[in-house]
Design a protein that fits this description.
Shape: globular
Order of helices and strands: EEEEHEHEE
Distance between the termini: 23 Å
Strand content: 25-35%
Number of helices: 2
Number of strands: 7
Structural class: alpha+beta
Radius of gyration: 14 Å
Length: 132
C-alpha cells in the first residue's frame, strides 16, 4: 500500500492486477473503495461457467483486495453490481450473498462489460476494527 494526501492506495500481487489507469482499492477516512472486479484470472482470461463462476471469482478477488486493505467481505456497506444480462443472470448472481447480512446494493443491467464478462462488482467497505 502507498499513501498520498490522506489516501492509501492498495495493491496486492495476490489479486487480479489492476489496469494501469486505476487502483485495486483506495482507503480514505476509514472506508475502503474497491474498484470494479470482473470474473477473470490474473492473465485476464474470463472464468468459464457463466455468471455463477464469474461471481465466485469476483468475490474471491474482492476478498483478497479488501484483506490487503485491512477489511473483508463482511465489512462491505455498499456494493454496485453490473450485469450484462440482467434477465438471465440476476437470480443466479444473488445466490452468493448472505440473506441476513446484505449490504446496501445497486444492480444495473449494462450493454457490455470488459472482456465480455457477465458480472462486475465494486464496493465500499469499512476498515476492520483493530484487535486489542
Amino acid at each position: 500500500m502507498t499513501s498520498a494526501s490522506g489516501k492509501t492506495f492498495v495493491f496486492t500481487p495476490d489479486a487480479v492486477p489492476p489496469l494501469p489507469i486505476f487502483s485495486q482499492a483506495v482507503v480514505s477516512n476509514g472506508q475502503v473503495y474497491a474498484s470494479g472486479s470482473i470474473g477473470c484470472d490474473k492473465e485476464f482470461k474470463l472464468i468459464e461457467g457463466g455468471v455463477q463462476a464469474q461471481t465466485r471469482a469476483v468475490l474471491q478477488n474482492l476478498s483478497t483486495v479488501l484483506k490487503a486493505a485491512g477489511s473483508g467481505l463482511e465489512h462491505i456497506v455498499k456494493a454496485n453490481v453490473y450485469l450484462s444480462n440482467m434477465v438471465q443472470d440476476f437470480q443466479a448472481m444473488n445466490e452468493f450473498f448472505d440473506k441476513d447480512k446484505m449490504p446496501a446494493r445497486t444492480c444495473v443491467g449494462v450493454a457490455s462489460l470488459p472482456l465480455g464478462a457477465a458480472v462486475e462488482i465494486e464496493c465500499i467497505a469499512e476498515l476492520a476494527p483493530l484487535s486489542t
